[in-house]
Every structure is written in C-alpha cells, then in structure tokens.
C-alpha cells in the first residue's frame, strides 16, 4: 500500500511491450527481464520497456504467472488520492448512465482502472472483493474512497479462495470495522430481493444479470417459465411478477433455495412457483422424459471452466444443457441462454448453441445477443472485462 519514494522498476524484455501499449494492462512473468530496486511482493512498481521508457505502474507479485496489472499509465503514486479519484470516476460513469441504485456494481476491476478490485453495493453494505495481494493491502484506502457512496454504512470483505491461493494471501470473508446485517433487502425493478452478505455466492447477488432479467420479464406474461441454475430465484421472481403463469426453479444449492423460497414469498408469487433441488443435468433429462414443457427457459450456469484446458469439457456441458432446454420448449418457445466462462468467446458460445439446435432438430431465431449489465463496463482493449454472453432465442 504505502509506496516508497522511489518504487522499484520492472523492466520488460525487448519486444514485450506490445500488449501494454495496445491498451491491455497485464504483464506475465515470461515478459519480465528483471525487477530492479528494493521490491516487496504486493507493492507498486514502475513498469518500463526495454529502452527504460515508462509505461505505467502496478502491484508486482512474483507468485502468480500474471505478475503485474497496470493501475495507471501515469507517473503517480498509488495512494489514497488515487483510489478516491478512481472510485469517483466509477461513480460518475454510473450516475450518468442512471445506474446508481441500492444494488449495483460500483467498481469493476480493469474496466474501472482498478485491476484486482470489485465492489458491489447492496443497500447499506458495500462488499469489497480483492483479487490481488497488492489490492488486499489497499483495502483501507478503498474503504475510505467509498465514503462518498451515500447510504452505505458497512463494509464486508468477500475475497475468493482461488485468488488467495494464486496470489498468496489469506482471503478475507468478514466485516471491515463494525459488523453490519448478515442479510439485506434490495430492489430490482418491481421486485424485492434478500441478499445474503455473509455466505452468499459471488458477492451476494448476480447483479450482472439485472438487465437480462428485465428483458426476460418482458416476455414472461402468460408463459410457463423454467429458471435453470436459479440461485435465489431472481429470474423466476421477475418473470412471475410480470405475469408468468408458473415457474419452476432448478438449483443445486440448498442455501440458495432457502433464500429463493423467501424471495418468492416476499414478492407474493410463491403460489405459482416450484423449487427443485438437484443437478440441472439430471433434472432436465428427467423433465424431458416426464413430458414437462415450458414456453420460456433461462439457462444461467456457473462457469463450467476456469481454465483454457478444460474448454472442451465445458463446451460439452453447455451443449448438453442447451440441447435439453431446446427439447423442453413448446413451439414458439423462448430460450435465454448464458455463459459466464471467460474462456468461452461469444463466437464459441454461438457455435455451441448452434450445434445444440442442430441436434435438437429445431430452427432458432436470434432475438437478441445479450451481455452483462452496464454497471459491469467493458474495455474494448481488455476483452476479459466482457465475460457474460447470452443469446435470446426463439424456436420458430
Ligand atoms: N440465475 C441466477 C444466477 C445463477 S449462478 C440469478 O439470476 O441470480 C449459477 C447457479 O447454479 C448457482 O446458484 C449454483 O449454485 C448453481 N449450480 C451450479 N451447478 C449446478 C448444477 N449442476 N445443477 C444445478 N445448479 C447448479
């Protein structure tokens, strides 16, 4: 966090500055010639090309293969003022877009010039996720910068185990300062949702699907809805409130389903909903055999792969659930299908779903190509910032 007056210098090998100059902030170990000056893992270093020209500054950590992500391209200290400026800019972007509400993503890592940091706001709680060792040391500065966020009184650290192992830090899962509520209520359009701050998935709620839930709700009236990988039934609640005749939610986590049940009641739609706990692959197959049919299906699976090597297995998984869903659709039915795997490109995803449609023997029309909500902005030069892709399909 606290930077020395003369930060250490990370020198890139010759010819390894291309990606950085093209607007991408990542530096891999193999691209580093040497790090000179006293450095400590997690502290900021200046990044220079092989001609010693300044490229920017970021936290250096020799442990993961991704050793540095540039936080700034200016010769400036990474201090409290830096974090305040970045958070202010992130808020200004969202204010201008009308995205400031009691539940939104405040900071989205690289896309907000803060690689390794995610902040989500849920009512009076800001959930802070640090993904790098350097960022964990800056958590107090992040909390201070967030003080401009009106209505937020509590801060909860919710780091990922995976990032902790990769970067070599003890993931924080707990309150920073005074403890806040274990659960809060947020609004999303016409619905209200309970969000588990302590022990929830991700940072508590899938804010990235907000706009897609609204889209699905717009199509739900008079339709039978199947919400696969439903988590706390957010799609189902939105669909039912918008007039779906019935909704079935499939979800493997009993904790998520317990909250789903309460969310359905909170929105007065529990009488039209049915929760099925289990593995979606098995349940979809059983439903197909049992002759269940739906007019609107949402497939929102977890990332089936976090690595490039497991891509083929992931593709098989995506294809199977899409095939099953297409078979469960009535004539004229609609499928909203998603992938949040970083390693599956929009083109890969389209190809997988195309193959599923071919196997199902149906013609599908693309009503819309979908992506993450706008409070998860995308940098064109950093494709990794766009991770959620989806297709809204109609069986014709
Ligand atoms: N649609 C949800 C978010 C879904 S996240 C929303 O809008 O809030 C993916 C969900 O799939 C998680 O809740 C996870 O517990 C669940 N899940 C993971 N693997 C599963 C499986 N094999 N079968 C059923 N659910 C699964």
CATH architecture of the largest domain: 3-Layer(aba) Sandwich
Please report the number of helical segments.
11
The tally of structural domains comes to 3
The third-level CATH topology of the largest domain is Rossmann fold
Determine Rg (CA atoms, Å). Answer: 22 Å
| Proportion of residues in β-strands | 25-35%
Helix content: 25-40%
Write out key terms for the chains shown.
30% strand, binds S-adenosyl-L-homocysteine, Transcription Regulator spoIIAA, 3 domains, Rossmann fold, six-stranded mixed beta sheet, 396 residues, Archaeosine Trna-guanine Transglycosylase, Chain: A, domain 4
Topology of this protein?
Blueprint: E1 8-12, H1 18-21, E2 26-28, E3 32-36, E4 44-48, E5 54-60, E6 66-72, H2 80-96, E7 103-108, E8 117-122, E9 125-130, H3 133-137, H4 139-145, E10 154-158, H5 161-167, E11 173-176, E12 183-188, E13 191-196, H6 210-217, E14 224-228, H7 234-241, E15 246-251, H8 254-266, E16 273-277, H9 280-290, E17 294-299, H10 311-328, E18 329-339, H11 346-360, E19 364-371, E20 389-395
Parallel strand pairs: 1-4, 9-10, 14-15, 14-17, 15-16, 17-18
Antiparallel strand pairs: 1-3, 2-6, 4-5, 5-6, 7-8, 8-9, 10-11, 12-13, 18-20, 19-20
S-adenosyl-L-homocysteine binds at residues 201, 206, 209, 229-232, 234-235, 250-253, 256, 279-281, 300-302.
3D architecture notes:
By secondary structure, the protein is an alpha/beta fold. It folds into 3 domains: 9-72, Roll (Archaeosine Trna-guanine Transglycosylase, Chain: A, domain 4); 80-181, RNA methyltransferase domain (HRMD) like (Transcription Regulator spoIIAA); 206-395, Rossmann fold, CATH 3.40.50. The protein contains 11 helices and 20 strands. The strands form 4 sheets. The protein has a 7-stranded mixed beta sheet with strand order 16-15-14-17-18-20-19, with helices on both faces. A 6-stranded mixed beta sheet has the order 2-6-5-4-1-3. Strand 7 and strand 8 form a beta hairpin. Helix 2 packs across helix 4 (139-145), helix 6 runs parallel beside helix 7 and helix 10 crosses helix 11. The radius of gyration is 22 Å and the shape is globular. The mean pLDDT is 96. S-adenosyl-L-homocysteine (SAH) is lined by residues 201, 206, 209, 229-232, 234-235, 250-253, 256, 279-281, 300-302.
């Amino acid at each position: 966090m606290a930077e020395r007056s003369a930060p250490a210098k990370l020198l890139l090998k010759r010819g390894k500055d291309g990606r950085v100059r093209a607007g991408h902030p990542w530096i891999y170990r193999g691209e580093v010639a040497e790090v000179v000056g006293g450095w400590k893992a997690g502290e900021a270093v200046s990044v220079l090309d092989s001609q010693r020209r300044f490229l920017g500054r970021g936290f250096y950590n020799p442990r993961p293969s991704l050793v540095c992500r540039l936080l700034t391209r200016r010769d400036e200290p990474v201090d409290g003022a830096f974090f305040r400026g970045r958070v202010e800019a992130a808020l200004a972007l969202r204010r201008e877009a009308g995205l400031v509400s009691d539940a939104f993503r405040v900071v989205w890592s690289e896309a907000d010039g803060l690689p390794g940091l995610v902040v989500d706001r849920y009512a009076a709680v800001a959930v802070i996720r640090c993904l790098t060792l350097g960022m964990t040391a800056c958590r107090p500065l992040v909390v201070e910068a967030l003080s401009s966020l009106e209505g937020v009184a509590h801060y909860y650290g919710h780091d990922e185990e995976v990032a902790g192992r990769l970067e070599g830090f003890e993931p924080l899962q707990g309150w920073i300062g005074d403890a806040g509520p274990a659960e809060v209520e947020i609004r999303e359009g016409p619905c209200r949702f309970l969000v588990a701050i302590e022990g929830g998935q991700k940072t508590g709620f899938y804010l990235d699907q907000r706009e897609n839930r609204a889209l699905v709700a717009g199509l739900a009236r008079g339709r039978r809805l199947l919400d696969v990988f439903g988590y706390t039934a957010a799609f189902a609640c939105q669909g039912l409130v918008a007039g779906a005749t019935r909704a079935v939610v499939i979800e493997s986590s009993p904790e998520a389903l317990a909250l789903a049940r309460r969310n359905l009641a909170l929105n007065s739609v529990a009488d039209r909903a049915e929760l099925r706990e289990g593995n979606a692959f098995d349940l979809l197959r059983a439903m197909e055999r049992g002759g269940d049919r739906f007019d609107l299906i949402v497939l929102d699976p977890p990332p089936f792969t976090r690595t490039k090597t497991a891509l083929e297995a992931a593709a098989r998984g995506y294809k199977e659930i899409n095939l099953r869903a297409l078979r469960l659709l009535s004539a004229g039915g609609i499928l909203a299908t998603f992938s949040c795997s970083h390693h599956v490109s929009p083109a890969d995803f389209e190809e997988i779903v195309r193959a599923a449609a071919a196997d199902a023997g149906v013609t599908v029309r693309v009503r819309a190509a979908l992506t993450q909500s706008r409070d998860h902005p995308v940098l064109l030069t950093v494709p990794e910032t766009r991770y959620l892709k989806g297709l809204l399909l109609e069986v014709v």
